[in-house]
Amino acid sequence: MTQALSWLADLRDDMPAVGNQGTRPTCLSWATTTAHDRHRDLALSVEYLHWACGRTGRGTRPGLRRGLRDAGQPADEQWPYDPALTEDGHYQPPDTVTGPFHHAVPRAITRDPKRLVKQLDDGLLPVAVLRVTATFLKPAGGVVDGTDIGSGGHAVTVVAVAQLNSDVGTVPAGHHLVCVRNSWGPTWGQQGHALITERAWNACAQYAFVIEPTDT
């Protein structure tokens, strides 16, 4: 399929290797940190953001907003991610966390693939929350297709949008594909990335937002 694509916007270059959240429920902090990193040209701490969302706010939009706005994020080296950390809610940042802390707010955007192109053209990496489908769990050839609405919720970072130049199987020419960066390690999809067809995206995507820094 990739040979039949025209890339409308593509920010995949010069990004570090994808992370791996392990079994912890930290996907929203991973996807958001990837977007925030781009603004700062700095690797920020996923672990600190997840903690800062609060015991009852982790994995939620209100918790994320509070964590980004009020606590911010220090550099990743101050508190690297630990996939084995117990989610008991009572842990605290280590003494190595000293700042500076980078603050931001999420701004809701449309999840329409064609509209995501503008955000990418502006240098922003949208964060999207999707319901998880069987094809998302195991994207054959790095492509997620179908019209299953899925279940639950999982956050990813949008890094590119492409368009088909010709029909590929049942996917027609002109169809958009959203390239997402996951936090399940490099063995998922193609080196941690996958293309989601427009029909699959419209069926399972729930909402999207971008990160806007509130300090310099």
Automatic annotation (TrEMBL):
Superkingdom of this protein's organism: Bacteria
SUPFAM superfamilies named in the record: Cysteine proteinases
Domain Peptidase C1A papain C-terminal: 112-205
Coiled coil: none
GO molecular function, one term: cysteine-type peptidase activity
Pfam hit, one: Peptidase_C1
InterPro entries: Papain-like_cys_pep_sf (IPR038765), Peptidase_C1A_C (IPR000668)
GO BP field: proteolysis
Protein name stated in the entry: Peptidase C1A papain C-terminal domain-containing protein
Organism: Nocardia aurantia
